[in-house]
Amino acid sequence: MELEYLTILEKRVEEMIELIKTLQDEKNSLAGQLREEEKAAQALHQERGDVRERVEKILMKINQLDDTDPNPAMEQETEQANSY
Question: What share of the chain in percent tops pLDDT 90?
Fold first, then answer.
């Protein structure tokens, strides 16, 4: 009878050891996936920053166009329209 309990205990310990190994493998796999996802997120964040910088440069160029003297032809058309 005592040997039966010992056999059952031994079997359960072996099962627990296998479960621990399985969980450790799964943990390592998930840690690898997490590192890959973090790298991808960082790359997307960098790309987003680059795009934002380019858009800001484009907007600055557009604003510079607005700040310059208007087209002389447009001024003449506006003056003519106002004189009527």
Answer: 73
Residue 79, Cβ neighbours under 10 Å: how many? 9
* Residue 53 domain boundaries: 17-64
Tell me if 5 is assigned to some domain. no
- Does pLDDT of 27 surpass 80? yes
With 0.70 as the threshold, say if the pTM is over it: no
Q: How far apart are the first and last CA of the chain?
A: 116
- Number of domains forming the structure of the chain: 1
What single-letter DSSP state applies at residue 84? -
Cα 79 from Cα 73, distance rounded (Å): 10
